[in-house]
Amino acid sequence: MELNSVVESLENQSILVTGATGYIAKLFVEKLLRVQPNPKQLFLLLRAPNSASAAQRFNNEVSGGEVFRVLRAKHGLKYDTFISEKVTPIAGDISLQNLGINDATLINNIRKDVDFVANFAASTKFDERYDDAILTNTMGAKHVVEFSKKCEKLKLFLHISTAYVWGEKAGLILENPLRMGETLNGTKSPELDIEVEMKLVLGRLNELKANQVSPKEEMIAMKEFGLERARLFGWPNTYVFTKAMGEMIIGESKEHDHKVVILRPPIVSSTLKEPFPGWMEGVRTIDSVILACGKGKLRCFPVNPQTVVDIPGDMVVNAAIVAMVGHGNQPSNENVRSIYHPGSSARAPLLCAKLPHYAYNYFYKNPMKSPPSKGETSGKPIKIPYLFIFPTMTSFSFFFYVTCVFPVKVLLLLNTLVFFDYFHDICSNAERKIKFIQRMIELYTPYALFKGIFDDSNTERLRMEVRLNEAEANTFYFDPKCINWEDYFMNVHIPGLVKYVFK
Known about the structure:
- The chain is an alpha/beta fold and 503 residues long.
- Helix content is 49%, strand content 10%.
- It has 18 helices and 13 strands.
- The strands form 4 sheets. Strands 3-2-1-4-5-7-11 form a 7-stranded parallel sheet, sandwiched between helices. The protein has a two-stranded parallel sheet with strand order 6-13.
- Helix 9 crosses helix 10 (238-252) and helix 14 (393-418) runs antiparallel to helix 15.
- The protein is globular.
- This is Fatty acyl-CoA reductase.
């Protein structure tokens, strides 16, 4: 693939972006507007009932947010005018046909004008309700790709997925597509049929409504149903299962001249450099573990020391823009299905074994504070234990039982024998901590014990094209070899995480 100037190629281009209030999408929009001030139009699809609500949500959650502060400073008093001229917020919902856009004239205008469609919309909770996850991650992908095929001058459809669509696969994971109906545990599971899954979702919802369960009971039941279906076919959670099905649908949308790029980032962390270091939104997988360490709630965790975990958000966005423009500039008769792993595991890995060291050193020097007791103006610094890691679930389970579960069982027994409920508060606090740790383990162990390496051969070829132009390479950096992981975690990511949680 021959890559022309990325910045110049973005001039006078119209781009439809879904999921515009998400973390990666905000970075994507901000970067586009910062490096290329003359796009034709950015159409941002936001989940909202009407255009006024979409505009309000855009102002509150996107353009008015901290991540746009560099762009805001760049344009000064003209910022609002610049945004209003270049960005059109649109009320919609990708779980619906035509992306939930009700204005037929607007639909026609978008289809006539759009050069690129970038689908960032996703439900990312590991234990999301199955109905919500499949509507957004699976049917949403179907609706967006169908909409893109009706755009008259479309150059490319960009879809943001996840590297973990291959579940807990070990070894080298290639930048290959998933086949329709493919499962991850072979003959152990029945055939995967997306239409059947949709019918099962509707059936379960109707069953719950017929039983007149409470909203909370319905939510719990649908979360459990999603995990049950995901694990039946070999995926560890509802999120990656429904994202995998979304990729399958996109892979089936084979039409002449319809170019598709699928970007599969691994776990995404705070920004390395742009628009400024350490920006983040949302507490992600490794962040929950880091925060639990800082609060003194976590003494041990099952972790494969060789597991690779990370890539900063700005590097993901740079890879997305370069791939989108690079393939979009190829001859129109070239039918492209390209997949990229913009991660660090193949060339500049951060091993999980180092994370406890980084977390302990940071919070030892910069301790978090406990909630203030009655009469105190501020809490006391939290003394944190060093986090012990166990390379297998067997070794972890034994240690966890002996040091955490068994002592609580002894106290509960003593509580029963003495009849005074003397240890009630101690046991209640300990049980809460145990349940918290058990929940974290259930959700995050598939990633903490992950034994795969994400091949990035396609991504490296993309990097090689960018390196041919030094200015472009500096603008659209996504080579993980430039990351000093210790400096990044100690001086960028963990400070950014603490700032975000306690802002």
